Amino acid sequence: MKTCDHSPVKITLTTPNPSFKASFLAGLEEMQNDSDQSAWVYLGDSSPRDIPYKDFESYVQTLLKRENEAPVGFVKDTTYWAILGDEMVGRISIRHHLNDFLKKIGGHIGYIVRPSFRQKGIATEILRQALQSSKAQSIGKLLLTCDEENIASEKSIVKNGGIFESTVYVGENRPRKKHFWISLNS
Questions:
Q1: What are the structural domains, with CATH classification, of the chain?
Q2: Contacts of 84 (CB under 8 A, 6+ apart)
């Protein structure tokens, strides 16, 4: 577990754990669109979002397993849940390397904050803590992306040292992605 004592919010990053089932599911209920629901569950756009409802412990084990064994079409990743008090308020994942999809759309790090906890500095803090992890440090230079219109995510990336590289067209009916790099070993 990683805890920050100097931040405006007292967030702890922890690996996924069945003890946060009620809080995780409450967060999933807050998500208003398919994209946010998919990001919260984090099993891929085409996977059913009801998996955590059916067998939460198995779902947690699936997330933990991905650190050492990537599903087809994915890369290995490390997932942390952001805990504030006893509430799961966000999720962040560090992808160990980039495939073609991640080079264009996803980047090394993906994160989401529950709607009821947004605009409180939580995304900035969980990103800051994730960048201090040994996995992020071992990658060294990380690509982060956000939708062109997602000003809040862009601010979190920039506050954590993100340097803008370009805006990328990713396909018909999809938002363009802004690409940022964060170098940890400079």
A1: 2-183 (3.40.630.30)
A2: 9, 10, 11, 12, 117, 122
